[in-house]
Amino acid sequence: MATHRPSLASGARRRTHRGRGPRVALLAALSALLLLLAIGAPAQAEPVPGIWYQLVSRDRSECLTVQYASLRHAADVRVEQCREGAHQQWRVVPVGYGYYQVRARHSDMCLDVYDRRWENWTNVIQGVCQDPYLSTSFNQHWRLVGVDGHYELTPRHATGMCLNKHYNDAIIYQCNHAPWQQWRFERVPT
């Protein structure tokens, strides 16, 4: 007795699904691997308001520091060996539009660009925090721009400028994505 097989119209071949499962799984795994390689290292999570951090430079792992733990307005901000002092601890306070005040723990003063200047080599100081809703306080507003697990801090009033480590001075300088313009927020144990 002959087995009846349905005929295929116009010479089309019958499709079989055998062997597709392993190929699909392999393609999915390769796609996931390529995606991970393209993305690279995960970015550091954005700092949480109210938590204290040390801001650590990428190039030499030194900390943003208020010089001599000064409590005065316009005290110099430096980059020095990390210790555990409150003058090396900072927290972020959102002020809107993606900007933050960066406040020192020992004084509750703000990271501030001296005299609202916007030129290369301008000093960064601690200053009495101004009303964040006034445009005259924009030199105390910082945007955190993620770069490979670190952040560039850019002042609101000076487009294209970044917080920059120059030897041991904290200054602003034109952003060039150099390691001395990149900072890691290391949470301070409570």
Question: Quick check: average pLDDT?
Answer: 85
Give the ordered list of helices and strands. Answer: HEEEEEEEEEEEE
Number of helices: 1
Basic shape: globular
Structural class computed from helices and strand pairing = mainly beta
Largest sheet: 6 strands, antiparallel
The gyration radius over C-alpha positions equals: 27 Å
How much of the sequence is in beta strands?
Answer: 35-45%
> Helicity range of the residues?
10-25%
Number of strands: 12
Note poorly predicted spans: 6-12, 24-43
Structure in words:
The chain is mainly beta. The protein has one helix at residues 20-39, and strands at residues 53-57, 63-66, 75-80, 90-96, 99-104, 110-113, 122-127, 142-147, 150-155, 161-166, 169-174, 183-187. The strands form three sheets. Strands 2, 3, 6, 7, 10 and 11 form a six-stranded antiparallel β-sheet that branches. A four-stranded antiparallel β-sheet has the order 4-5-8-9, with no helix packed on it. Strands 1-12 form a two-stranded antiparallel ribbon. The radius of gyration is 27 Å and the shape is globular. The protein starts with 19 loop residues before the first helix and ends with a strand. The relative contact order is 0.17.
